[in-house]
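Quick note —
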Amino acid sequence: MRAPPPHPQRFAAGPRIVVPTRTLYAVVFSLAYASVLASLPVDAFIDRENYLSYAGRSDIILERSRALGWLVMLFNEPAWLYLNILIGTYLPAEGTLRVIIFGSALALSMTTFALCRRNVIWASVFLLVPMVLKNNVIHLRQGVGIAVFITGYHLRHRAVGKGLMAVSGFVHASFFIIGFIGTVIWCMDIARLSARGKVVIATLSFVALGTVVIVIAGFLGARQAEVYEDFDLSGSGFGFVFWLLLMAVFLSSGRAFLARHTFPIAIVGFYIATYFTVPFTARVLESGMVLILVASLDLTGWRKPTFLAMIVTLSLAFYASRIGEPWLGWGAPF
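Predicted structure written out below.
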């Protein structure tokens, strides 16, 4: 009598690994996003000469800062310098910049998709918003800081996550302000203040910081004190009005939304409170932009389409107005 044929599953190759379509899309988009940005001409954009100098001379810059004292060195973004030194040990200056751009863009993109959960289309749109995209095109140091911070923000391992968020301030100084905002929120949560009390305390704190931040930066020897010392604050006021309107959308969303997204809302609040007093307040807004955009996906009713429509319209208007300029206005002057 012949033996029965073996069960067909006995010789199976093992369990099938099924990759969700959204995950596959996020990985492919992120790799393409980072690859395109890293492959752009290294010397074609604003401030690239300065970044090439960092890539080739960060060891010298670090020694000069250290010679002025450890305090000065700590508040002149040493983590950025060490990153350039590390990569520059193995690659020339141009290669160093390409690796930095690719790594920060990839980390930013993957984390944005993770934070947006199932909204892969909106995650893709957010990564193309000018205030997000520019940080991996012309503000490379800030782009690295954002990638480090948002990765730490997303990590479930709280100790590692908080460590990365702390390190981001030593990559780009705007994250010291972000850290201050987070500390204010934490203190208010500990004190169990009412929603109205939080708004009042946060506003007063931001206004107070705005009046002394340049003085503090000068005392600590931060490079921003000299860069922004004579900065002209007489702008059109468009940014103030635009984000004041979006802030109103946030504040109309109820206590549950405000409790879940206090941090990004507070970043917008800092921008509004210091618009006329702090010359680099837009940089702080840009550093928290991804978290602000992600929070908007949790809005309900008319608020979500209103917020997103305003962001998309502003982005399209920005690109449309710069179509005739080199690299959409981000090109280096020749």
